[in-house]
Amino acid sequence: MTTAMTAGRIAALLGLLVAGTATGLAGWLVVDLWFPAGLLLAVLALLGLFLGARIALGGGLGVGVAAAGWFLSYVLLGVPRAEGDFLLGSSGMGMYAYLLGGSAVAVICATMRGPVEPPVSASKSGG
Fold it and tell me: What is the pLDDT of residues 67-110, one digit of tens each?
């Protein structure tokens, strides 16, 4: 099922891109600040963002755009600057766990079936 790209839908996608970037920045700060609990808090924030994007737009496109914003901020904050240092330091395993957990949550939210979609029947032909 495809939906037309209206101005409201494009604005929602741009908003999700910005929200994903802000969530990625906040997650990076929280994971470095409070490592064990901060990691859980950051991944739960991503779950809320991705699930909300899925529900708001009714499909995986919203999750993909929010995940792109999150990953963009993750990459930009992790790239060394010209001076040779990082904008934000990483605490080793915490940042890899944040990347893996966020990616897993994004894939789960993008591929899940919603209550809007009817169950698949074995009697229907696929072609």
Answer: 999 999 988 887 776 776 666 666 578 888 889 999 999 999 99
Question: What Å distances lie between residue 94 and 23, 24, 27, 120, 125, CA to CA?
Answer: 16, 14, 11, 40, 47
The CA distances from residue 65 to 37, 69, 84, in Å, are 27, 6, 31
Nearest to 30 by CA among 17, 21, 18, 43: 43
Residues 35, 99: Cα–Cα separation, whole Å = 14
pTM: 0.80
From CA 31, how far away is CA 95, in angstroms rounded?
Answer: 7
